[in-house]
Amino acid sequence: MPSPNINGTQRGFIIPIGGAEEKIDNPEILSKFVELCGGSEAVITIIPTASQLNDTGSRYQKIFEDIGVKKTYSLPINERIDAQNPEYVKTLEKSTGIFITGGNQLRLSTILGGTPIATAVRQLNAKGVHYAGTSAGAAIVSQHMITGGSTGIVPTEDGVNLAPGMGLINTIVVDQHFNERNRLARLLSAVSYNPFLVGIGLDEDTAAFIDHENVFTTVGSGAITVIDPSGIEYSSMAEASTGDALTLLNVKLHILARGGRFDISERKAYVK
Q1: Which positions of the chain have pLDDT values less than 50?
Q2: Any long-range contacts for 35-41 (C-beta under 8 Å, 24+ apart)?
Q3: What is the pLDDT, as a whole number, of residue 1?
Q4: Which end of the chain has the smaller Cβ count within 10 Å, N or C?
Q5: Which residues are catalytic?
């Protein structure tokens, strides 16, 4: 598990973004991330591993430079051997912010998992470096990462596929492109396995800015769906057969648009 702090320092923000964040006209989410990282003095390192497009890293470098960042790096990590490169770790250690792009989250976990790069990301975040990830880069912040599943509203016994994530935070499970791709069923399925987890469903162009006290604020044009199963009275998951719809009693749900806040530790939602 990641350390909550190292030598008394506060953990950096963890910022999962639901994908398709505005990049040109009003890059609210990316601008706020840059501001946290030091504004024009920020040093942003991009990890485009999830994407198989050759220009993803350089494209985000240009986006951050247009926002005002003077120094950006992109690490061309395409195979596990690349994630062992000590020079890439040294580059990460210069960062005030780390950004992981969208793509395929299984590329992230299979290429980065258990490597010095993944260790460095976790340690740097624990030391106060801010982390943001969009789409696949959002999904992997969880200890339990959603990799696929059913669409729709009703959860089922086999409604979600999970794999180990990076584990920057272990109390939530994240899904992205949430409203746009009708993913309520699979997030409900995920939290029904263990009501310890809070489900966070991120719409596109929407982010949860999670601070060191595990309180997040909604930023962006969409909303965040929060599923809190801590008060659940009954789940049929253990008895269900493959494909069966689930019975879930007393599951709490919140919809939080811009400025809405949620205390993950206390399981409490706030307006402003």
Answers
A1: 1-3
A2: 36/97, 36/130, 37/69, 37/96, 37/97, 37/130, 38/96, 38/97, 39/68, 40/68, 40/69, 40/70, 41/70, 41/96
A3: 45
A4: C
A5: 135, 177, 204
